[in-house]
Protein 1
Amino acid sequence: MKKVFLFVISLLALLIFCGCRSTGGDGASPSVTTTGQGEMIVKGIISADYDMFASGANEKSNKTDEENFIRSCRELEENFGKMEAYRSMGELETPLLINQLYAVRFIRTSTDGKKVAHEQLLQLIFSVDDKQSKLLGMRFL
């Protein structure tokens, strides 16, 4: 509940302070720009490569520093198993934000020693301002 509350507060702050962007456009569409970013972020998480992750998120040691990133990757592996692969599930059409969905495949060993595969949905939320996108948040659904 606390995470949902923080997410809603963050989203409201974003909508209040980011202003509006034009829907018409010249140049590259935001979805084309963020698709490459989303893939860099997911690949960075799979390989526990902070530089790749930060490059895709368009930030360097801002909110997610390298230690927190490595710890989060470790916790993901402990909870879900080893991330093995991903595939894009598309984008959700929303005003002011770009929501990308990825199906991420995890492999873990069960208590009887067998390999168990399962998928989780990963949501990446981007803001777009002046044709530049930035990762605002991410979560597994």
Protein 2
Amino acid sequence: MAIERTFSIIKPDAVKRNLIGAIYQRIEAAGLRVVGAKMVHLNEEQASGFYAEHEGKLSSRPLKNL
């Protein structure tokens, strides 16, 4: 069986509302396993670069909100 990986981001508003634990519980309840976690703060340039390939595809709103 092939191993699949995915990447997720917990947005700043969820961190401020102390939802990280609840989000992890939902991930694990779905049968997924968190194998790594890292908390970072992106500046505007980093956020723009990260989302550049998705700009205009996913939402009518700006994808970055610093």
